[in-house]
Every structure is written in structure tokens, then in C-alpha cells.
Amino acid sequence: MQRILILIALMLGLAAPAAAHGPPRLKTSAEVLLDATPEEVWAVIGNFGDMSWHPAVHATEGGSNEVGAIRVLSFDAAGAAQLSEELTRYDATARTYSYRIAQDVPQVLPVTNYAAHLTVKDQDGKALVEWRGAFYRGHPNNNPPADLNDDRAIEAVDAVYLEGLEALVARFGRMN
């Protein structure tokens, strides 16, 4: 009988951590069909070390198209607002790369454990640009402050994606 009680206590003890959980992994994506060939668009956005096409990025340092490369994005002239991103996958033939934020800086982008994919697909000879990301909010515990909650995280990443895609529309034009 004592063995059964010990076994039940052990099972309950192991089950308790499974009941606890943190914030959900959030996902968002954006896409646009451009009036340009996939090759033309890839020539502009396919270099991991060059984010000059994105208006929010003031400067890009480092980075190459080798997996493991690190780029540092500066969002202001002083370099006070920066993110370091690591290239995790690169396929020029498929016109896609994946990257992650190497060190979380929720004051710059209110997320943690961010990973994203940027892809240019061929849709009847035109470029379909897809930008997808997955991440956690900037505050890992319960009851996050408003500037680090789920809604703010999604809103901030969406704004980055949309601003970048709108810059591509300005450059190449949008297909209806």
C-alpha cells in the first residue's frame, strides 16, 4: 500500500509541471505580389547582409549569405537601437532565407525567441514576397506590461513586415 501511495505521489509530482505553461508562441506573416520578376526582387532583398531596401533600417553591419553569419541592424543614426540577427538557412536557388534574433532586445522589438523566413516565389512570372515570423512576447511571465504583451509583439512585427513590403511596392509596383 505504501508503494502505491509513493507511486501516486510521484506521478502527481511529475504531472504538475505539465499543467504549468508560459505565453503562447505567436506567429504572423505578410505577403505582397510585385510587378517584377522573382529574380529582380531577389537581387534587392536576397543579400542577408544588406537591409538597405527596408526604410526602418538605418544601417546594416556584417552579415553574409553563409549560415551562421551575424548582421547588426541599426534603426537610428546613433546606433542606439540595434538588433543582431543570425542567418540560419539560405537557399539562393529557392530564393529564401531564414534568420533569428541572436540576442533579444525587447526595448527595440518587443519579442523574444524571434525567428523568421523571407521568401520570393514565382507566381506566373511575378514576385510573391512572403515574410513569416514566430516569436514570444517581450515579457515571458504572466501579466506583462502593455508594451510587452502579445498584442504589442504582433503589432510591432507586423509593422516591420508591412513597412518593408510597402517599400518594395514603391520600388517595383504592386500587382492586383
From TrEMBL:
Pfam families attached to this UniProt entry: Polyketide_cyc2
Cross-referenced SUPFAM superfamilies: Bet v1-like
N-terminal signal peptide: 1-20
Keywords: Signal
Source species, domain of life: Bacteria
Protein name listed in UniProt: SRPBCC family protein
Source species: Plastorhodobacter daqingensis
